[in-house]
Amino acid sequence: MTEGTGDRLLIRGGSRLSGSVAVHSAKNAVLPLLAAALLTRETLHLRAVPALADVTTMRALLGELGAELREPAPGELQVRCVDVAGEAPYALVRQMRASLLVMGPLLARLGRVRAGLPGGCAIGGRPIDLHLKGFAALGAEVSLRAGYVEARAPAGLHGARIYLDYPSHTGTENLMLAAVLAHGQTLIENAAEEPEIVDLAGCLNAMGARVSGAGTPVVRVDGVPALGAVDWTPIPDRIEAGTLLIATAATRGEVELTGVVAHHLQAVVAKLRETGAEVWQEQGRVFLVARRRPAAVDVKTLPYPGFPTDLQPQMTALLATAEGIAAVTETVFDNRLGHVDELRRMGANIRVEGRTALVTGVPRLSGAPVQASDLRAGAALVLAGLAAAGETEVHGRGHIERGYADLPAQLRSLGADIEAGPGRVAEPARTLGGGA
Ligand code: EPZ
Predict the structure, then answer these.
(1) CA distance to 195, 334, 352, 410, per residue, from 262 (Å)
(2) How far apart are CA 96 and CA 349, in angstroms?
(3) Ligand 1 atom nearest residue 130's Cα
(4) Is 121 a catalytic residue?
(5) What is the Å distance from ligand 1's center to 96 Cα?
(6) Predicted confidence band at 120 (pLDDT cuts at 50, 70, 90)?
(7) What is the pLDDT of residues 341-381, one digit of tens each?
(8) Which CATH class is domain 5-24+236-420?
(9) Comparing 5-24+236-420 with 27-232, is the CATH topology the same?
(10) Distance 106 CA to ligand 1 centre (A)
(11) How far apart are CA 123 and CA 166, in angstroms?
(12) CATH assignment of 27-232?
């Protein structure tokens, strides 16, 4: 059952995006930063917190665990975990896999944690074996019982040398969160290098932790007895920024994004340049101009700094109308090509062979009712609708709202004709030059 199937976005394609838009803080930075509040009795003060469904879910989970939450000003959040419980209910873990990020801090703080084991989701199996193996290396006794995972370390956690078979993004974060209060030194080898991990390490160090090497394959954590208060502003959302850049390329527009970190976007900028878009960056801003039909380019997703899997569906939507044949290979998740069937409904010519989508560009897609299967697939279908001829209904708007603070509003501010739900306020659509 795809939740939120009753909610939809209506898009009338053909507007060329133009203008300037600011990028929000990163969902995948804010979620682990909120979990870090569990490590201390002192206050974690976060600024520029985006209004996302997943942030609401994490706030609810922290509240369930005993945290006090305050909003001193719009977009600001203060979290104080004086007394915390050690159980993450399955209902919330099922709703959002990132709920697992409370396991490391609770194990570090309380010496025990019980969490509903997450099921799979729309993009693949999503096991957590690497998280659990790391907790065991740190001295926890891990057991699975009735769909719950329990980890107990009554004598506290001790430093360890942990090798991750795969550079898991939240696996690295969960183990950092567990190790900061452990006795002794922990090395996390073959660690993930995503910018959100670097942001988390910076915040933990501002709380008094001793984390070094974040953003490299070896993260070192020297345990400390306690952590204190922190006032922190998360990094910008590189996936939201990449989504908007790809939308601009898909509509042959010209857009400036503000409040970005240029080097976080290197993979998507490089690929968009290969398609023929002009992109340049200066202090905190990135500009993209696309004047003609994109050239087909091959894309292969990899852990950072490779091309991000979270932009693969969006890139596939762009390549659906490119000149030539593109091979899009998804190496991170085992089932993240669900958007292909929906793009086909819009006239895309895509053949899937294993983990690779062979995309033969067509001059233009045609609007159709389509179903978002997850957050990024939903964004991809919106992008396809923006450039398509006619009207597209993207069902499952709730998926998109999990990770984009207000994508329709951002796109509307750039001239897109996009409206939530029934009825619409159609702005004058600035049409694309020529069909091709
Ligand atoms: C994080 O998910 C992100 N989520 C994902 O963003 C993102 O796509 C992914 O990292 C890659 O960057 C958050 O940060 C909250 P992984 P995560 O562990 O940590 C396998 C979005 O749309 N694996 O790096 O779950 C796993 O099955 C979301 O914002 C194991 O086998 O990703 C997958 O194939 C989607 N065992 C691969 O590793 C484990 O214990 C990458 O997973 C853990 C992971």
Answers:
(1) 12, 29, 33, 20
(2) 33
(3) 40
(4) yes
(5) 12
(6) low
(7) 999 999 999 999 999 999 999 999 999 999 999 999 999 99
(8) alpha beta
(9) yes
(10) 21
(11) 17
(12) 3.65.10.10
